[in-house]
Amino acid sequence: MPMNIAVIGGDGIGAEVTRESLKILQAVSQHVGFDYQCTELPYSGQHYLQTGTVITEEQIEALRDYDAILFGAIGHPDVDPGILERGLLLKLRFDLDLYINLRPIHLYPGVQTPLKEAGPEEIDCVVVRENTEGLYCGCGGIMRKGTPDEISTQEMVTTRKGVERCVRYAFELCRRRKQQGTGRGQLTLVHKTNVLTFCGDTWFRVFEEIGQAEYSDIECGYDHVDACCMYMVTQPKRYDTVVVPNMFGDIITDLGAAIAGGMGLAASGNLNLDVSQQGPSLFEPVHGSAPDIAGQNKANPIASALSLAMLLQETGQLRDDESAVEAGNCVEHAVGMLCAKLAGQNMDRLEIGTDEVGDQIVSLL
Ligand code: IPM
Ligand code: MN
C-alpha cells in the first residue's frame, strides 16, 4: 500500500516551503523506489476568509484515514490571532491526540551558530514537548471584560496519563539514542517545580518513578525552565534528551532553533504513536507563515524538508516500511550536504531562493 499523505501547506511561506518538500518527496521516492500518494488540502487563513470556516469536524474525521500529514504554517494578517492557531493547528494536535511534539536541536556542520564556542559536538539534543495539555488546553475564561474588575484565568492542566505517556516516550527515545550512538543516555526533565508546586509535583514524581522502575540505564536530571534557558546558551552540551511540558517546550525550542542555526532549519513532528488509535502524525516546520517575506521566494524550505524527512522516518517505522525510512534518511543526508555547501550563510536569510534550495536538495539526492 502506498503511504497516504495529506498535505496542508497553509498560509504565506508555509505553502511555499511545502511546495519544495513535495518536489523533494517526488524525487526521493523515485530514487529509493518508495511508493506514496498525496492529497493537497486547502485549510488556511485564506480558506477561512473565503468560506467562513477553518476546518469542520467531518474534515478532521476524514484526516484520520491518512498515514501522515505534512503541514506548512498558518497565520494570516487579516485573521485575528488565535482563530487559526486554536481552530486548526491546536485542534489537530488535540483532536488527533498528537501527544508528542518532537523537536531535534541539531547543529549541522557548516551552519553558523550565535554561540561563539559551540559546534555540532555541543549542540545536539532532542526535545520531547508534551503536546496535548498544560497551558494550551484553553481551560479558563474571562469575565467583566473591559471593566476595572476584569478577571481572566487560563489553567495549566496536567494529567497523570498525559505526563506518563510523554515521559515514557522520552525515556524510550533517550535509550534508543544511546543504543544508536547518537545520544549519551541522559534525560533531563525541565519544569518549574519550585513555583508550580502542583503540576510540577505530578511531573517530577512520574519522571522519578518511571526512571527508577524501568530505566536504570538512563541518567536522569532536572532543570528549572529559566535555568535551562541559560544553560542552553552557556553549556548546550548539558542536554541530550529533554522532556518538558507544553508551554515551556514551546519557548525553549525557539531558543533551541536559534542556537542550531535559526528558524529556517527547525523541524518538528507531532506524533501519535498509539497504534490502536491508528491516526496520522503531523510534521511541520517550527516557523510560522511569515507574511512579511511571503511570496518573495525568500523563505528557507530546509525546515520543511527536515520535517518531511522526519515524516518518512517516523511513519515508515510505524508502518514497517523500510523504503520510507531510507527515503527519510536520504533527505536528511542531502540537507546535511547542502548545509555544508552553504557554510557560513545566514540560514534565515539565504542568498539563494526558496525554489533553488529545493532544486539543490533534489540534485544532492
Ligand atoms: C509552535 C507554535 C504554536 C505553538 C502556535 C502557532 C500555536 O508556536 O508550534 O511552536 O505555540 O505551539
Ligand atoms: Mn512556538
In short:
This protein is α/β, with parallel strands linked by helices and 365 residues long.
Please render the helix and strand layout as text.
Layout: E1 3-10, H1 12-32, E2 36-40, H2 45-51, H3 57-63, E3 68-73, H4 83-95, E4 100-106, E5 124-130, E6 140-143, E7 151-154, H5 160-180, E8 186-191, H6 199-214, E9 219-224, H7 225-234, E10 241-244, H8 246-259, E11 267-271, E12 281-285, H9 302-319, H10 322-341, H11 354-364
Helix pairs in contact: 1-9, 1-10, 1-11, 5-6, 7-8, 9-10, 10-11
The structure holds 3-isopropylmalic acid and manganese (II) ion.
Explain what you see.
- This protein is an alpha/beta fold.
- It folds into two domains: 212 residues, Isopropylmalate Dehydrogenase (3-Layer(aba) Sandwich); 148 residues, Isopropylmalate Dehydrogenase.
- Helices cover 43% and strands 18% of the residues.
- The strands form two sheets. A ten-stranded mixed beta sheet has the order 2-1-3-12-11-4-5-10-8-9, with helices on both faces. The protein has a two-stranded antiparallel ribbon with strand order 6-7.
- Helix 1 crosses helix 9 and helix 1 crosses helix 10.
- The protein is globular and about 55 Å long.
- The mean pLDDT is 97.
- Manganese (II) ion binds next to helix 8.
